[in-house]
Amino acid sequence: MFPDVPNTGLPLSGLTVIDCTIWQQGTYASAMLADFGANVIKIEGPDSPDPGRGVSDAYFQSHNRNKRGIVVDFKHPEGRETVLRLAEQADIFVQNMRQGVMDKLRLNYAAVSARNPGIIYASASGYGSKGPHREWPAMDILGQARGGTMMTQGPPDLPPIFSFGGMADQVGAISLSYGILIALWHRARTGQGQQIDASLLGGQVMLQSFNITGTLFTGAIPPRRARAQAAPMWNVYQCKDGGWIALSMSQIGRWWRPFCEGIGHLDWRDDPRYNRLPDHYDHREEIIRKLDALFLEKDQWEWVEFLCGQGLPCAPVQDYEQITTDPQVVANEYIVEYDHPSGERRKIVGPAVQLEASPGSIRSGAPEFGQHTEEVLLEFGFAWDEIEHLKTCGAVGAR
Question: What is the set of domains in the chain, with CATH numbers?
Answer without folding.
Answer: 16-209+353-393 (3.40.50.10540), 231-325 (3.30.1540.10)
